[in-house]
Design a protein that fits this description.
single chain, 255 residues, alpha/beta, Rossmann fold, 6 strands, globular, StbB family protein, P-loop_NTPase, StbB-like
Amino acid sequence: MKIAVINFSGNVGKTTIARHLLLPRIPGAESISVESVNASEGESTAMRGRQFGALQDYLHTIESAVVDIGASNVDDLIHLMRVYRGSHADYDYFVVPTTPAIKQQQDTIATLVDLSQLGVPPARIKLVFNMAEFGTSVDESFFLITAFLKDQAICTADPSCCLGANDIYGRLRRMDPSPSIAELAADETDYKALIAAATNTQDKLALGQRLATLRLAQHVGEELDACFEALRLGAPPAALAAAPTHRAAARKAAA
């Protein structure tokens, strides 16, 4: 199975979705990151045709992959998919994370429209409602997207495919090496006993932070499992003949 994690917008959690939601639950999947050179320095390097061709060639040599496409490369990637006619079929699914911020919702709608215009049918475009606000429904938090999809059903959007905002992802980035959530959740260390036995405040604080991270991991692991199940990733849908109809609907929406 080959999955592209994609959105025109940054700050929607594409890498988090790729690393923590998809890769641990797709046996044997290889992680591929498509990022601009020098992106951290504020410079943008476009994906060239030869790079896209090399990516296509490599995908044909492996069974499973999760391709994390950096926001600065999405426009180039979609353009090259138009040039390399039918290349979107190299991916079984396009997973599109989104967040409640208005700009991110607008960029998400633009991403869904472009994928639909490429000819990707709704069953192969999966929306993940990320960083959802506690106590607020998906319809309320993501009102722009849900209103759009009621009129133009160009992707698969299940409100159960939802992840809440959580401090654990920031904690993981500060850990070296950074463990997976599954590894953290499986940790059976008795941190409370270690905290009681520690003789100085610094050690107690460090152990307390580790215990807090373990507790977050156990909650988030269950949330990730439920979200992955809601995605319903399986064999690529066979009924793709409806794609032209959805492309026409997307053009109408974009007009």
